Amino acid sequence: MAHTDRLSAVSAPDVAALAAGTAIFGTGGGGAVYTSQVLAEEALLAHGPVPLVTVDDLGPDDLVILMSGIGAPTVGIEMLSSRHQIDLLVREAEAVAGRPITTLMAAEIGGSNGVAPVGWAARLGLKLLDADAMGRAFPNAAMVSMNVAGVPCDFSVLSDVVGNVSVIKTVDLHWLERHARALTVASGSICLGVHYPLTADTARGAVVEGTVSAAVRVGHALLSSSDPVAAVAAELGGSILLTGKVVDLDRRTEGGFARGSVTVAGTGTDAGRLQRLELQNENLVVLEDGEVLVSVPDNVTIIDAETGHAITTEMLRYGQRVSVLAWACDPIWRTPRGLELAGPRAFGYDLPYIPFGGPTR
């Protein structure tokens, strides 16, 4: 991620652009941003701007922790979090860590998980790190940049809306995903969690930097342009693969995930073309005429063909007029370890990864 035009703080007027940008970075997942946007704006108006710091700004006394929602986005629309959840989480995390937490970081910049930490940091009086652990959204706890970099996760804490709190210490992040997902399903398929305590030393080179600022830039491009679809694609260095209409949708909620596929039929200059996108909370693979155009870990977002706003997987509907937007992932995911964790085969697709680098036609 570029470090130009970096914000030094996030204030209430920034949240609309942040939400629009994180919805794009959600690649279909991360949860719908509207509720998180409203809550973050309310928190910033009540408590003031949140300092946005870089890894280089962190001192020896700083402790960063990731904070996010976990579960099925389809459920998250209806089941809202409790105000007490973040206090329970942070108090328990500080007790386990044995020291105060000074800084929050979004586990993923995509979707509501990229917006909500701003409000949480404001309510808790903490700083926010201008970084995240994915550079997008992924559905699995093991798919984080620190795991690619070989930084271990000391502990995780989960809480649900009724006040249950669980401390999890697992041998690796694949076990964390299993345990956290089981607890989440038992809690109605939505929880809040904190995990991966980081210091200045362990965060350096292990997180995707500049992503909060990048999301705000993308959001501003979308909200201020007369041609938002083209503006977003240009800001991301991406491409519009197809513009058309949703003609088929297979979506179900199971095991704490939204799974399925969506088919888009081209219209206008794209008439006669058909693309199918495979979904697992996020958009994972784009296929046309039996050919893979894009696959994870590269990014695919379905956006409204007129407004440019992202449409999350749980909000897809038959007949929507959409554009399919694709752009390259952060380089950390193109490493052998990154592809092992988040390439096509990590999701069960027997496909070779072919890096996406620009227009396909």
Which key phrases capture this entry?
alpha+beta; CV3147-like fold; CV3147-like; nine-stranded mixed beta sheet; 361 residues; seven-stranded antiparallel beta sheet; 2 domains; single chain
Mind explaining what this structure looks like?
By secondary structure, the chain is of the alpha+beta class. It has two domains: 9-211, 3-Layer(aba) Sandwich (CV3147-like fold); 233-347, CV3147-like (Beta Barrel), CATH 2.40.390. It has helices at residues 15-25, 34-47, 73-76, 83-97, 112-124, 145-149, 173-186, 200-203, 211-224, 228-236, 336-342, and strands at residues 9-10, 50-53, 64-71, 103-106, 127-132, 156-159, 165-168, 190-198, 208-209, 239-254, 257-266, 274-280, 282-288, 291-295, 299-304, 321-327. The strands form two sheets. Strands 1, 2, 3, 4, 5, 6, 7, 8 and 9 form a nine-stranded mixed beta sheet that branches. It has a seven-stranded antiparallel beta sheet with strand order 14-13-12-11-10-16-15. α1 packs antiparallel against α5 (112-124). The chain is globular, with a radius of gyration of 19 Å. The two termini are 26 Å apart. The mean pLDDT is 92.
